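Record now logged for everyone:
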Amino acid sequence: MIMEKPKWYVYLDGRFIGNVKSGRKFAEEVRKNRRLGIISGEVNVACIKRINEVHINADRGRARKPYIVVENGASRLTPELVERIKSKEIDFNYLVRRGIIEYLDAEEEENTVVALSDKEIDAHTTHLEIDKASMLGLTMNLIVFPEYNSIGRHPISSNFAKQSQGLYAINFNRRYDPRAFLLYYPQEPIVNSLAYRTLKMNRHPHGQNLVVALATYYGYNMKDAVVLNKGAVDRGLARSVAYKTYSDEERRYPGSQQDYFKVPPATTEGFLGEHAYSKLSDDGIIESETSIKEGEALIGKVSPPRFLEEQTSFGVGEEKRRDNSVTLKAGEEGTIDSVMMCETTSATRIAKVRIRSNKIPEIGDKFASRHGQKGVVALIVDQNDMPFTKEGIVPDLLLNPHGLPSRMTFGHMLEMLGGKCGALKGKHYDGTPFATEGKALVDEYGSILEEHGFEKFGDEVLYDGRTGKRFTARIFTGVVYYNRLMHMVSLKLQVRSRGPVQILTHQPTEGKPRMGGLKFGEMERDALVAHGASLLLKERMLDQSDKAEIWICKHCGDVGYYDYIKNMPVCPNDGSNDLEMVEISYAFKLLFDEIKSLHILPRVRFKEE
């Protein structure tokens, strides 16, 4: 019995359109016609042998990447074509139209064997990378020497690039972004990449070149912590400004009622007190360059009442207004940078107020290099107490050397050498991914350092600023481009002793704007349980949270109440007056009530004395 070959199912954009005898030959025919220009270059075809299916994709939104086509063991991009491109006789699109370069999507890439260079092409190769760096994304190409770092550092460093403070837009003073950060003295990195130069990223700098020494400082920069030089901070190192915008509008409501921007009168419901509105102008909007603190009004606004008006004794409806002003949130302060008034197409007035506040680096602020080496400032040391070289150079930042080998961020060390050479020669150095060979690079940097009287591997003799004694070990010192990240302690700091509580659970509110407490979760509770700190646990989870004193009946165990007319406690279940007051969590009392709603009567039993 002769077994029939199974049919191949063909799908176009996920929709079944027919069968073919050989999926591989069919896919090859589609690719051949695409390269000849018979069918659109937007079409991609993938032959999936495992499930006998051919997928043709031509839908929108696919990520596609260009590759050089390889035929008969040779690249179709010949040296003659490269010369014609250099002389601008032809362009990139010409190569795409002629089938020399083609765009592949993620599914068709599964059918390819891609070589990284001409030397690696063999009989099985189907495509050639245009550039090794093209396998990395845009953000990754801005990082220098990423091929020398562990692959796990790549997404981390990409995220840090997005979180860094810098010159995010040239027209920042015309914008009213909800939150923005601007570095006062941003710099261009000494070591940069081809993508950085091509995209002209020097127009949007996002960091500063710091002199970094790999050294510990009396145990302060343990783990990832860093130590900063106070002298450098005073001279403007990583100093930035934070902008925050508050906005409001005069809304219209049914019944021809609307909001009004004005200074709320004292008769308004929810009036905050005269001091809160003291900085508002006559039109109810604060003026520029006014200093402001938490709780003070930025935009004065009165709104109609939430419910229908009550009739007065004379039968005339008295119009009540409620205060709906925008005030500065808890824990914030600053200076009014700019105020804008505008109207929508429906003639609704909108007010926007932008606040600025200076952010000088302090203990707890986050810094990171372009290699994912993040760290929080643990100490800011006076310049005369910092280590110094024999030339009198004081590092701006001290980084713990243990953070590099364990994370395998050797690109960070190469940048230190490159940055040091760039500072000595007064020029930029290239750190484009895959552009250079590591050993040759270290030799090149080493010869430049030796030329200027330094040790070839960047090690230097340092002296302790406190004692003046020379360190026994040589310290690796160089220049690294560091970012100051948007995570600053002044924006996260929250403290409260007493404050507002939630209506339902009687527990403290959550979040800094609502003057909330810090969450003490299950894991923190487990730590106290493990230490046997029962009184501390009780204080944290009961006394400082939702302690409630309730009456419990000694006979039936139900929750009772105190009758202030009879001046005695009463049990609603059996009418007994023999109740005892106990301290429990109010959330536990809520649980009691919820169980009662299920027609189950929970009882509290007392231990016999």
